[in-house]
Amino acid sequence: MSDKPIIAISRQVPGQLLAPLLAFGEVRMPDAPPPTDLLSVMRDADYALVTAGERIDEALLDACPKLKMVSTVSAGYDHIDVAACSERNVRVCNTPKAVGAATADMAFGLLLAASRRIVEADAFVRAGKWTRSAEPLFGVDVNHKQMGIVGLGRIGAELARRARGFDMDVTYYNRRRLPAEEEQRLGVRYLDFDSLLEQSDALMVQAPYGPATHHLIGAEQLARMKPSAVLVNAARGGVVDDAALAAALREGRIAAAGLDVTEGEPDVHPDLLGLPNVVLSPHSGASTRDTHRRMTLEAFANLVDALRGGPLENCINPLPATADIA
């Protein structure tokens, strides 16, 4: 029996990606495209590469007692029970660097689409309603307005850069304030959470999802926002209470919303579906060919780093130095 580690890959990948891994161990992946029984691939694995569509929970971890590390082809990791991984000394790595620019592009695109009613305007023209006597579809300006970013991480920093091109006043809220030199470099101002809600013309939600951020934006927070404000969520469903958001949009308590993510996705709250002042996208913030390629390469690099026994730059649950991963 070989002493080489077993490396499980949940989906078929091109052969050129496997070469660096084969130098370290045995690679296992499904013979057919998904859906595949994930356990059948990961059983006996020491290392695994998965995607955001695959759930890593306690039951699967208990069935894979040799597992030391999981690399996910995603920036988000709410599909992985990180606490359960930590309890079992399983490290989890993600791909935060690869997705920042594309996700920020999508978030800013949703802001423009919702603010300027672009989707409504498209439907208006296609329905043959555009005549000389037609009333214009008035939206709200984006330029020279105040953007408030909830969660100024990699993607939030990319958003701040784009906002400066629109001469926006960029403010943010984090649980931990950035150093003054970082604020100056990004051209952002810190506000407490309530002030950010009250002052922002564009509220950009980029906080990760977890117990501490579940319904971080709910009815109480929406009630603090301006009636002319636009909310954009390109982070994770569940950070925003979609039922409360639908009520605020329906009653005109905020102007519009752009959502790339929703609670319980791919299901969408039915009250949102009938509203003209919400723009919906199917969690496609990072869905460009170039970005997906970079995500895949970053996830494979995470695997190689683990196999080499080196530091894990993208590890979200660093373990004590006594924990063995190699």
Automatic annotation (TrEMBL):
Q: Report the superkingdom from the record.
A: Bacteria
A Pfam family assignment:
2-Hacid_dh_C
- Which of UniProt's keywords are assigned here? NAD, Oxidoreductase
D-isomer specific 2-hydroxyacid dehydrogenase NAD-binding domain residues are 108-285
Keyword S-adenosyl-L-methionine carried by entry: no
**SUPFAM superfamilies, from UniProt?**
Formate/glycerate dehydrogenase catalytic domain-like (SSF52283), NAD(P)-binding Rossmann-fold domains (SSF51735)
Q: Which PROSITE patterns match?
A: D_2_HYDROXYACID_DH_1, D_2_HYDROXYACID_DH_3
The protein's matches in Gene3D superfamilies, at most eight in alphabetical order, are given as: NAD(P)-binding Rossmann-like Domain (3.40.50.720)
Limits of the D-isomer specific 2-hydroxyacid dehydrogenase catalytic domain: 13-317
Asked whether the UniProt record includes tRNA processing among its keywords, one would answer no
**Family, similarity comment:** Belongs to the D-isomer specific 2-hydroxyacid dehydrogenase family.
| Descriptive protein name | D-glycerate dehydrogenase
- Which species is listed as the source? Pseudomonas schmalbachii
